[in-house]
Automatic annotation (TrEMBL), chain A:
Origin: domain of life: Bacteria
Protein name: NADH-quinone oxidoreductase subunit K
Quaternary assembly: NDH-1 is composed of 14 different subunits. Subunits NuoA, H, J, K, L, M, N constitute the membrane sector of the complex.
A biological process from GO: ATP synthesis coupled electron transport
Role: NDH-1 shuttles electrons from NADH, via FMN and iron-sulfur (Fe-S) centers, to quinones in the respiratory chain. The immediate electron acceptor for the enzyme in this species is believed to be a menaquinone. Couples the redox reaction to proton translocation (for every two electrons transferred, four hydrogen ions are translocated across the cytoplasmic membrane), and thus conserves the redox energy in a proton gradient.
Organism (species): Occultella aeris
Automatic annotation (TrEMBL), chain B:
All copies of domain NADH:quinone oxidoreductase/Mrp antiporter transmembrane, residue ranges: 137-423
NCBIfam families in alphabetical order: NDH_I_L (TIGR01974), PRK06590.1 (NF005141)
Protein name in UniProt: NADH-quinone oxidoreductase subunit L
Transmembrane segments: 6-25, 37-59, 88-108, 120-137, 143-162, 183-199, 205-229, 250-268, 280-301, 308-329, 335-356, 377-397, 417-439, 467-490, 510-532, 613-633
Domain NADH-Ubiquinone oxidoreductase (complex I) chain 5 N-terminal, chain residue ranges per copy: 71-121
UniProt-listed InterPro entries: NADHpl_OxRdtase_5_subgr (IPR018393), ND/Mrp_TM (IPR001750), NU5C-like (IPR003945), Proton_antipo_N (IPR001516)
Organism, scientific name: Occultella gossypii
Membrane topology: Multi-pass membrane protein
Amino acid sequence: MSLVNYLVLSGILFSIGSIAVLTRRNAIVAFMGVELMLNAANLTLVTFGRLHGDLHGQVIAFFVMVVAAAEVVIGLAIIVSIFRTRGSASIDDANLLKS
Amino acid sequence: MDTLNLAWLLIAIPLVSSAVLLLLGRASDSWGHWLGVLASAAAAVLAIVILVQLLGLAADDRVANVHLFDWITAGDLTVSAGLLVDPLSVTFALLITFVGTLIHIYAVAYMSHDADRRRFFAYLNLFIAAMLVLVLADSYALLFLGWEGVGLASYLLIGFWNQNTEYAVAAKKAFVMNRVGDMGMLVAMMAMFATFGAVDFETVFGAASGAGQGAMTLIGLMLVLAACGKSAQFPLQAWLGDAMAGPTPVSALIHAATMVTAGVYLIVRSGPIFEHTPTAQLVAAIIGAVTLLFGAIVGCAKDDIKKVLAASTMSQIGYMMLAAGLGPIGYAFAIFHLITHGFFKAGMFLGAGSVMHGMGDEVNMRGFGNLSKYMKVTWITFMAGWLAIIGIPPFSGFWSKDKIIESAFVGEGWQPWVFGTVALVGAGITAFYMSRLFFMTFHGKARWNDGSNEAPGPERHPHESPALMTVPMIVLAVGAIALGGVLSIGDTFVSWLEPVTGHVEHHEPVLPVPVIMASTIVLVLIGAFLAWRQYAASAVPVTPPAGTVLTRAARVDLYQDAVNEGVFMRPGQHLTRTLVYTDTAVVDGAVNGLGSGTLGWGERLRRLQNGFVRSYAAVMLIGVIGALVVVLASRV
């Protein structure tokens, strides 16, 4: 099985993720899109690690997972707190910094 | 030398009086005019005392420098204010204070119906003080102070009735045209500073012989320009006619006897400079000759009695300027004519004022006629002035003008013939227009409405003026009759001025003196006869006839105003408009454009910050893709 298939899959996942971020108004769904993009990147890293035959790619993928876990915590907390104060999880409503 | 040190009082007395009158305001309305007369008279008495003191000294000792105070001290530069008391300045001081006092007295009656008479006297006193500063100054800097002072007083007095827009405009015109001349004065002073490092007479005259020809010519020409502005000489003469908007005593004092002669004083005083610059001297003489004819021609056509006198003043100052431009041989005669002219012309202006007083402020001579029957004193005093100005011996004007004509004939090459002929012809024309004025006003048939004839206009009741007005006229008439002759006995006046003008050997004119004298008198008689035939023996039309091309041109001052307007005023206005446009369009445009451009870009960039997270994300994504494309493309 060619490694190119993994890269193509990664590209597809990244595209799905970015489309989700750009088109969905729901903060949770957009957040999921972000996670999908991160994991697409992880898949690419692991693929290239395999290609080179060393562990660098996998190590960086672990770093990304750790950062993503931390990010999820903060991101979800922000979303929940916005939902509590403004009664909406739509990211288009969170535009108070404008003007 | 005691009294000479008191010379500053000459200036201080009228100045203080003027300040008092202006500061007290209406509170001094009832007695203000008498204070003005008193201040002027006190200055006159002091001037006479100084004259007597000077006469008691030997001729060579008659020059005294009176140091007053250090005026400007800055580093190495010191400009001190001091007075120069010498025969020339004392002569002027006497003329100013004596004639000035007579005119003050006259004005008490003349202005008696004016609510602002006190203010009028305040300005007159201010004028006397400024004029005395001008003639007594011992440096060009202090002279300039007086120079501007008389300009200010002249402006205030021409526009004294400034509720009339025309008069206010006339005042402004005089002021602006004088500024052109003042610029010459300033440039001359700057050139002196650059050349000699000082502007006091002593240093400048002492170093004049060592300076370069170019610098001296520049200084000389600029002084001539200054003199042209102040003395209404060609090409800066257009203001004098309009200056007649001022009350008649002002015309008599400022625009006939004293201020307008300041230019002649300046040139005579600057004699040591002009000695080294024949070019400037020649220019002064040419300007004098041109103005002499110019004024005389204009005088022949005007119907306004004061404007004829103004044109005549211009022409007579042309004579003085011509004499001053001839160099040392003419200086004394220029001043001599200036003094006699001060008397007879002031006398005639006061006479004209008296006529206007009796005729309800009418100035059109075509509406006069036969006034000799109603105003005997005015008629006789005016006749003295008339005979003096046309130069009938033994009246004052004959002695001074004849000397100038003689001097004009002295020299080599083309100059004596041109200048002499112009002076000679000018005398003939002078005789014509002054006789025209005299006959039109006092003789012939009455052309005013006396209630019974058919003449147009309101009913007039001509009457003689009160004694306050006639007495100064009589005194000035006595001067017009006798002053020239008395001062000519044994060349008294010329030798009195010698410490200033220098001793001059007698020069022979290119024509024999008796021939010049005889042809002058013949021309004068012809001019007077022509005027008599046309304006006394035959009827004068009440409405001016169409006249020849020359007459029509002379009526509008030989198109001088049109020339000034076309050559200087319109292009000047266009220049300022262009500059204003450039300023608003280019300079302001650049600055404002920068501001509004930045604002516009800010506005456009602000649109990007729309507050939608998803659009930010899209921008980021596009940016990343764009960056990737660039990076990958550069690798290939």
